[in-house]
Amino acid sequence: MRLLPVGDDSLLVDLDSPEEAQALHAELLRRRGAGTLAPIAEIVPGDRTILLRSISGVDTLRTELGRWHVPALTADSGPLLEIPVVYNGTDLRDVAALWGVTEDEVVRRHSGVEHRVAFCGFAPGFAYMTGLDEAYHVPRRSAPRTSVPAGSVALAGAYTGIYPRPSPGGWQLIGTTDVPLWDMEREPAALLTPGTRVRFVPRDPAPAPAPAPAPASGQSAGVTTERMRT
Fold first, then answer.
1. What is the rounded distance in angstroms from the CA atom of residue 210 to the CA atom of residue 215?
2. pTM of structure
3. So what's the pLDDT on residue 228?
4. How far is CA 195 from CA 18, 50, 186, 201, 230, in A?
5. Mind listing the domains of the chain with CATH numbers?
6. For the region Disordered, what residue ranges are annotated (predicted)?
7. Which secondary-structure segment (H or E) carries 80?
8. Average pLDDT of the chain?
């Protein structure tokens, strides 16, 4: 753990691994909830860092952090959300080829593990979720798309992410969800916050809407022959 000053009252904690960063973030939240942590305006996790912004008593906390024992995360730490996904992404076949399995097996493996929000960024409501074994990490696309639909479930590197709104992106698209990820009327506005556990639940695509009935004889597009005379 390396503690780097940021201005006069903030610290950047630099860790050796994403797992250490997630464990320290969980411990900070636990101590804040227990009332044993110095007042901190913001706790902002990153991949291997945590920014502690506007600390009351920054020198005291710097000393205390060096003495902390941070327990490893347990499987059941953090709230659990289930997110329904239709696994119909345009890159599902490519991901299956990269993994050396069938598309159905990609679905089984991705939905068969528990994911965890490590940190957020890129766009409001976008969460970087870990959980896949290193053997299933995939590269970003060589040519990013200019627009990715909102709700797209995607993979890149070690992470799963869901695009909260249409935006450019180079992640591998494997599915879609209609769960709202960002809502300014909700507190917090982001559905997926650091430390949240996530399970993806496969579901079938919605049935296609039934075709409109053909107009009855003597009618055209909802306009009666009587009205046509007038």
1. 15
2. 0.83
3. 35
4. 12, 13, 18, 19, 67
5. 2-66 (3.30.1360.40), 80-202 (2.40.100.10)
6. 202-230
7. strand 80-85
8. 89
